[in-house]
Specification:
- The complex is a heterodimer of chains A (537) and B (334).
- By secondary structure, chain A is an all-alpha fold.
- Chain A is built from 15 helices and no strands.
- The N and C termini of chain B lie far apart (57 Å).
- With 334 residues, chain B is of the alpha+beta class.
- In chain B, 35% of the residues lie in helices and 20% in strands.
- The interface between A and B is large, with 97 and 82 residues.
- Bound molecules: protoporphyrin IX containing FE and copper (II) ion.
Chain lengths: 537, 334
């Protein structure tokens, strides 16, 4: 790390030295940083697989063999979902900022926190071994009976997912307890930053939904090893049952992915508009509403799976309801900017990219929630575009907003603003080129998970692949300047953005104990603006 | 702008296609308007309220509940309209006409087999008459597949161990692309078939020619015109005949008559397509999946008034044998 004892103050980074002090640390900030490095590394690995997938699709005709291609897209999806996007915001940024934002010294169970990190690394290693031992070719969804019959390393990969799940469950438990038990005096629920409401809702989903994927992967492994028929009709099982199990977890999981990103956007938009959030309660409780509804809509992934028409009816109806709390949030973020003093620094550019891209992602969800239209669009590139707009356009943009916003606090150094803007612009342009084209491909009927395609799909695929190079360039620049800034970045002040939440009241980087004395909270987190009439719009 | 989108418009080749497109377009315009309001607002605010100097004052606004509620209310109405519209059209998609032309489909890694009731079997090429309701009864020999015809806007997963059905009526003569839309392994993207729609009289001729050649023992000439290289057209026994033979060979006749006479088990005359009353008083429709289940899990749904003595045929009957039996039992319905 870039700090030695000559640095201007003792902080969590230089308080103890040596790799061992990191491997045994119980400090939530250090654990958060370790998660950050691990997950960002996997982001890079998943990104490389993505570039290879797009390379194959640059033109019709094979570049890699079909089996190689199938492994590429499976590994891309599995790594991005299980090792990057699900853990990163809660486990890295949440770990670092949750205790600070409620005025606490640490999470409720520091040892459990470290254990979660080791479990995460173990699960990830299992998945990495599955790559080394031949890869997996089932898609990240592991649909049966293919996943039971394929000769690839499904067992290692699903065991990896199984183990990773425990890491998420423990982190979730830790966070729920911390929020309930360790808030500083005066820190009522309604004075908590919206980031924490989002992390709280996420933690609840993690605790309640993750066991289901654990059981599902365990059943899958048992079926493969012991030939007990759960899912393979040859053994008397039901392949569609697997899809119910899988989506019963994985639909709530998509909200594990997006809610924390939404939380970050609430922080960044208020700080860079110098405005109180518009509709604090609506934004806070819509997180909980989304978390609740997310448990009862999984069947919208199965409209053509042969599930009953009644199930389709209910799942379509319920899915429509998700749109409402989601739209309220989008509306409120936009309204927050009204009459603000808007500064377009990199974190804000990412937050605005989120708003732009997530709006498209959410609206295209409406097409898919309408059953008759989904019959056409399901399993085409339209789906691929939709979930990239929400997961990359939403979560990843939110993550990057947060990472730039909190980087000075975490490491005491500023990232270079100009490079930050350039990288954001490249990513934003590249993203739209890569994925907007895929909506059209899907509408024209191109199925997903295709190693090769018919010639009429060529032009849009070329555009999409070229777009991926822009994203690659943008992200590469970002990785370089982040690492550079750890050593050479300008020293950061306590509060470079004029933020109002508690982390901006302590040193950058924080000391081991965060606060010199326990803070007492008397106001909400977004007291920007002159106190004029309340309730004016 | 509008014309620009037209180049991505697929031909509408089934009765459902225009309906699906109409809802698609509706949602498209709802989305465009919502997008313009949100992102237009955002861009306007960025420009209008850009920071001119550090520390400039901003007003203290915490929200406005009536606005939020009206946004939620308007949105609720819109999504319910979309929901109802989607459901209504979907109900038409799954509705099947009682006199539909039934064709068996067997999906396997990585090809499609189509089998007509007269015994004609073709690989990767499906021929149907225009304007006639068609019903595909689909099974899979291995993993999940999905039968997808973009120009029809229709798709249905094909699931091993059960039958799924797809109903459609083609509205224009010509060749349509069939994809496999559910990932099924190595050659998933090569699991393609052609769907040829003919005028009904041409279709009739196409079938009768084959039937006549068949009865005269001539090898069909159609072989060369199919898309796949591998043995495109195979001549097999008529599935009803095959089913009848299996019915005797596998010992079904010991307990089931086909004449209406009740033996150990119920007679299978006129069972298919009728409701069956079960031991627990509930009723089920005897369709393809019911027959299949009765063969695989005979104790699961017991017919009222009969003892639970039927043995399972799981592992004894192959998929194509089950198909033949189902077709045979179906033929007993009238
Ligand atoms: C307004 C909100 C949303 C609605 C109405 C919606 C609706 C849908 C529907 C109906 C599907 C299933 C389509 C199909 O498989 O045929 C779907 C797929 C998907 N959605 Fe959403 N969605 C919304 C937001 C989100 C969010 C916030 C995320 C994640 C951050 C997300 C992630 C996904 C993913 C990952 C898939 C596809 C998974 C796969 O098949 O691999 N969606 N969405
Ligand atoms: Cu979902």
């Amino acid at each position: 790390m870039a700090y030695d004892s000559n640095d201007h103050h003792k902080n969590y980074i230089n308080a103890e030295k040596g790799i061992w002090s990191w491997m045994t640390t119980l400090d939530h900030k250090r654990i958060g940083v370790m998660y950050l490095f691990a997950t960002m590394f996997f982001f890079a690995v998943g990104g490389i697989f993505a570039m290879l997938v797009r390379l194959e699709l640059f033109k019709p005709g094979p570049f890699f063999s079909p089996d190689t291609y199938n492994k590429f897209f499976t590994l891309h999806g599995a790594i991005m979902v299980f090792m990057f996007i699900i853990p990163i915001i809660p486990a890295a940024l949440g770990n670092f900022f949750l205790p600070i934002q409620i005025g606490a010294k640490d999470v409720a169970f520091p040892r459990l926190n470290l254990l979660s990190w080791y479990i995460f690394v173990t699960g990830s290693l299992l998945l990495v071994f599955s790559i080394v031992s031949g890869g997996v070719d089932t898609g990240w969804t592991f649909y049966t009976p293919y996943s039971i019959r394929t000769a690839t390393s499904v067992i290692l990969a699903t065991l990896g997912v199984f183990v990773l799940g425990f890491s998420g469950i423990l982190t979730g438990l830790n966070f729920v307890t911390t929020i309930h038990k360790l808030r500083a005096p005066g820190m009522t629920f309604h004075r908590m930053p919206l980031f924490l409401w989002a992390i709280y809702a996420t933690a609840i989903i993690q605790v309640l939904a993750t066991p289901v994927i654990g059981i599902t992967t365990a059943l899958l492994v048992m079926e493969r090893v012991l030939h007990i028929g759960f899912f393979d009709p040859k053994l008397g099982g039901d392949p569609v049952l697997f899809q119910h199990f899988f989506w019963f977890y994985s639909h709530p999981a998509v909200y594990i992915m997006i809610l924390p990103g939404m939380g970050i956007v609430s922080e960044v938009i208020t700080a860079f508009s110098k405005k109180h959030i518009f509709g604090y309660h609506a934004v806070a409780y819509s997180s909980l509403a989304i978390a609740g509804i997310s448990f009862i809509v999984w069947g919208h992934h199965m409209f053509v799976s042969s599930q009953s028409p009644l199930a389709n009816f209910l799942f379509s109806l319920l899915t429509m309801l998700v749109a409402i709390p989601t739209a309220i949030k989008v509306f409120n973020w936009t309204a927050t900017m009204y009459k603000g003093s808007i500064s377009l620094k990199t974190p804000m550019l990412y937050a605005l990219s989120f708003l732009f891209l997530f709006t498209i992602g959410g609206l295209t969800g409406l097409f898919l929630a309408a059953i008759s239209v989904d019959v056409h669009l399901h399993d085409t590139y339209f789906i691929v575009a939709h979930f990239h707009y929400v997961m990359m356009g939403g979560t990843v943009m939110g993550l990057l907003a947060g990472l730039h916003y909190w980087w000075p606090k975490m490491f005491g150094r500023m990232y270079p603003e100009k490079w930050g803007k350039l990288s954001c612009a490249l990513t934003f342009i590249g993203f739209n080129l890569t994925f907007f084209t895929q909506f059209w491909l899907g509408k024209m009927g191109m199925p997903r998970r295709y190693h090769d395609y018919l010639p009429e799909y060529t032009p849009l695929n070329i555009a999409s692949t070229v777009g991926s190079w822009f994203i690659g360039a943008g992200m590469l620049i970002m990785f370089i300047y982040f690492i550079w800034s750890l050593f050479k970045g300008k020293r950061a002040s306590e509060n470079p953005w004029g933020g109002k939440t508690l982390e901006w009241t302590i040193e950058s980087p924080p000391t081991t104990h965060n606060f010199h004395k326990e803070p007492v909270i008397t106001t909400g987190p977004y007291e920007y603006g002159e106190l004029k009439t309340t309730g004016e719009a | 702008m509008v014309d620009f989108f037209k180049i991505f418009q697929l031909p509408q080749a089934s009765t459902m296609a225009p309906k699906v497109d109409a809802l698609y377009d509706f949602i498209h315009w709802v989305s465009v308007v919502s997008f313009v309001i949100i992102v237009g607002g955002m861009v306007y605010f960025i420009w209008k309220f850009r920071r001119r100097r550090e520390g400039e004052p901003t007003p203290y606004i915490t929200g406005h509940t009536p606005t939020e509620l009206s946004v939620a209310g308007v949105l609720f109405i819109i999504v319910m309209v979309i929901f109802y519209w989607g459901w209504k059209d979907y109900s038409k998609i799954i509705q099947s006409s009682p006199n539909a032309l039934e064709i068996n489909v067997m999906a396997r890694q990585w090809l499609w087999e189509f089998e007509y009731t007269n015994g004609r079997k073709i690989v990767n090429e499906l021929v149907v008459p225009k304007g006639t309701p068609v019903r595909l009864i689909m099974g899979s020999a291995d993993v999940l597949h999905s039968f997808y015809v973009p120009n029809f806007r229709l798709k249905q997963d094909v699931v091993p161990g059960a039958y799924t059905k797809l109903d459609f009526t083609a509205t224009s003569v010509g060749e349509q692309q069939v994809f496999c839309a559910e990932y099924c392994g190595t050659a998933h993207s090569k699991m393609l078939a052609k769907l040829k729609v003919m005028e009904p009289k041409d279709y009739q001729r196409w079938q009768t020619t084959w039937e006549v050649e068949q009865s005269l023992g001539i090898q069909p000439a159609g072989a060369a015109e199919t898309t796949a290289g591998q043995a495109p057209e195979t001549v097999v026994e008529n599935p009803v005949e095959r089913g009848k033979k299996l019915f005797a060979e596998k010992g079904c006749t010991a307990c089931h008559s086909v004449s209406g006479q009740v033996l150990v088990g119920p007679s299978l005359k006129e069972v298919f397509g009728h409701e069956v009353e079960l031991a627990d008083g509930s009723k089920v429709m005897a369709d393809e999946n019911y027959i299949r289940e009765s063969l695989m899990e005979p104790q699961l749904k017991l017919v009222k008034g009969f003892p639970p003595v039927m043995p399972t045929y799981k592992g004894t009957l192959k998929d194509d044998e089950i198909n033949a039996l189902v077709t045979y039992i179906k033929s007993l319905r009238n």
